[in-house]
Predict the structure.
Amino acid sequence: MESLSDDEIIRRVLGGSTRSFADLVERHQDKAMTLATRMLRNREEAEEAVQDAFVRAFNGLQRFEKRSRFSTWFYRIVFNVCSTALSKRGELRHLSSEGAEEEGGVEIPDLTEMPDAIVEGEDFRRHVLDAMNGLPPLYSGIVTMFYLDDLGYEEIAAITGSPLGTVKARLFRARAMLREGILQRTGTKEFAR
Amino acid sequence: MIHPKANELFEFIDNRLEKDRAEEVMKHLEGCPLCRRKVELERSTRIVVHDEPLVNVRRGFSASVMVRLVTPTRDPLALRILGKLGGFVAMLVVLAVIGFAIFKASGVTEKPDTTPSAVPQVVAPLSTLYENGIEAIDHQTLTIAQTIENAGDAKFWRTVMITVLTIGILSAADKLFGKRFVRLKQ
């Protein structure tokens, strides 16, 4: 099967081939779904959010200026749709109290008690995923973009619409929380700061 | 021993530290098992999340999206207002036709008093124009009515008229209230 680039598909869609948009949907749906699921923690809501995002992307495709990759632009839409859903649930309120993060002063737990083999095996995987589920939705979304999609700080800043410093602070904070969550689950008692 | 700050370790792992500082951190890691464990834990965490399978959408997801794309969405506000106005005008026309039909059926033929004497002298020419217009419309209506009567099948024409009026009223109501009482198009 012919594999077209995102730009080529977009050119076709803008040329009137609405059907070509299905290729973009199939190419990006799973990653978008993963991000939405991590943020919303509800499969049905996540799927609805991703559908909304695709419809918005289609309607706004004329405005896509190709200064960034389509995936970045589309992720931004997904992120915004999910953020709106979280706002309605009142789950973005904690952001107003995260000012201290701008200083970048996050601490990592003391790992002197951590067993050597802790970062291996199925148990570790389970602990990581459980800890991910324990993160606040926004942090979970940012960490997903960072780890899963290998997006850089700048791309995440573009997606979330936040300043680079804020993104770095949130990312460091999220990773520190994730690490703490993993250590709690592995039974490492020492959490000196 | 002075350990690198937590954020510095993250930046080191992300290859975002300045070259000189990165070399210092590297040297520190060689002699600090604690910081090495932090780095190891961070890298292992990253690998687990990265390798985790994506959340798949349900079957037929892309088809659902495409259906939503081809389904007409709500028009902009201005167009919606225009649409409602159009519907309102259409409804007025339909009501006028019904009113006219009832008026004719009840046999009321009395003309309104539009004698020039009742109108101020200044607007007399307009009044004459109005009267001529009314006469022309009446003549036209009479011709149509005679044609229908001559067809000899009043019941048939009444049915046609009622059908057309019903569709007209429902279409107008559809446009006016934004509901799809009558689906004339997909």
The first helix of chain B runs from residue 6 to 13. The helical segments of chain B are 6-13, 19-31, 33-51, 61-70, 77-105, 124-150, 154-177.
